[in-house]
Amino acid sequence: MDKELTANDFAPEQVQAEVAEVKEKRDPVRTVILASMVGTMIEFYDFYAYGTASATYFPKVFFPEVTPTIGLLLSLLTFGVAFVARPLGSFVFGHFGDKIGRKQTLVVSLLLMGLSTVLIGVLPGYRTLGLTAVVLLCLCRFVQGIGLGGEWSGAALVATENAPANKRALYGSFPELGAPLGFFLSNGLFFVLESTLTTNQMATWGWRVPFLASAVLVVVGFWVRKKMQETPLFREAQKQKRTTKSPLIQVFRSNWREVLQGTFIVAVTYTLFYTLGTWSLSYATTNLGFTNKEYLLMLMGTIFVFAILILFASRIADTFGRKRVLLFSAVALVVFGLLFPYLLMGKHNVAGALTFLIVGFALMGIAFGPLGAVLPELFPTKVRYSGSGIAYNLAAIIGAAFAPTIATWLATNWGIHSVGLYLALMAVLCVVSLLTMKETRDVDFKK
Questions:
Q1: Which pTM does this prediction carry?
Q2: How many whole angstroms separate alpha carbon 5 and alpha carbon 79?
Q3: CA–CA separation, 46 vs 182, rounded Å?
Q4: How many other C-beta atoms lie within 10 A of the C-beta of residue 25?
Q5: Is the pLDDT of residue 18 over 50?
Q6: Which of 273, 258, 282 lies closest to 366 in space, CA to CA?
């Protein structure tokens, strides 16, 4: 009897072999989760440790010769240095990520990011080196930004290029989950330190501990990423010679519209995150009567809402599309920006502050979760690392680099309602970008 024919019998043998090889070399889900999540966790751990230190300790450590308000503004300006450097990092790491692969590029970005963070923890203060201390702080921050510039987009590609087509948003949420984890670890360590050390000890050496402790996370991340393989889609693109020698030129020539769309879709999430975390911590401890430890405890408790909503929104985005979910969050953020100032009034208003944080982090999770799929889906494989990285890091400049400084200046000079208008404006820009974007859920991710 003749052998029953199957669909595979009509496929060229070379294609069958390539498909089998791709399946065979695909990393296990747990490796994908860890490899994509660990870098983003370190990113947000490092950035939030810096944000907390710059809002609380750096004004006295690096700017003791000026008034407290000016010292705070100058300290928060150093916070923005890394964001300015991030597009440069996305150019460099995006170029090599699209040319030689995701794995090697991610290992280098992780080490560069981790080394600069540890160096911040050993820097002498202003009273020891004068302005040289400030210059070195900004230099470390700049190098940290270059490393971070290649981190998120590479992590998102590790997740999504290993994902089944109907679960790309869910897999894309793995690096996004690194944000609340890093946030919790950073806040938790500061909370423990401030609970056990005196104010003077924290100002002299306690603030250094979180930066030095990041070395442990870097070692773990390096070990995980050395074990992972190159993503199957990039290996396939290499075999079919669909990579490009000049991905940066290609992405700006052919995908500039997607770069702009991605930038403004992401920017509002950055503004929201650093308004919730960095600015509100400073505002609550200087205007609302909260101690640093009290507000850190509330931040740690409400960050779980962020994590849960990341997973929920990503799963919904796989079912109903990315655009609907993101439009809902953007419109809701316009409303939130107009209303949240009423929650941050009165002294020691615990109910208002908790409502502000819970609603804010819920909307943050909905807005942030699907981005791990949306940005990679906007770009073809040959420029995916470059395109998604440039959009993500330009968004960091527009949405986050000076968000704490702008919010502090607005609140001081125009009142807290102006901070809400600032957030609402960023959300409106996101809505406009989403309305010009096509739904990406069903794009052919192999092209």
A1: 0.79
A2: 64
A3: 8
A4: 12
A5: no
A6: 273
Report CA Rg, the chain.
Answer: 22
- What residues contact residue 160 under an 8 Å CB cut-off, 6+ apart? 168, 171, 172, 372, 373, 376, 377, 445
What are the tens digits of pLDDT across the range 270-293? 999 889 988 898 899 989 999 888
Distance CA 69, CA 75 (A): 10
**In which residue are the tokens 């890091």 written?**
393
Whats the size of the chain, residue-wise? Answer: 447
What pLDDT, in 10s, does the model give residues 294-342?
Answer: 998 998 889 899 999 999 999 999 999 999 999 999 999 999 999 999 9
pLDDT tens, position by position, 106-126: 778 888 888 888 999 999 999
Structure tokens at 210: 């979180």
Question: What domains appear along the chain, each with residue ranges and CATH number?
Answer: 25-223+242-436 (1.20.1250.20)
Q: What angle do CA 288, 43, 266 make, to 5 degrees?
A: 75
The pLDDT value given to residue 230? 63
Rounded to the nearest 10°, the torsion over CA 161, 165, 167, 169 is 60
CA distance 325 to 318: 10
Tokens standing for 302?
């409400």
Angle of helix 131-149 relative to helix 151-160, nearest 10 degrees, comes to 20
Task: Match 């704490």 to its residue by tokens.
Answer: 404
What distance separates the 2 farthest-apart alpha carbons in the chain?
Answer: 93
The residue among 344, 334, 211, 339 whose CA lies nearest residue 279 is 344
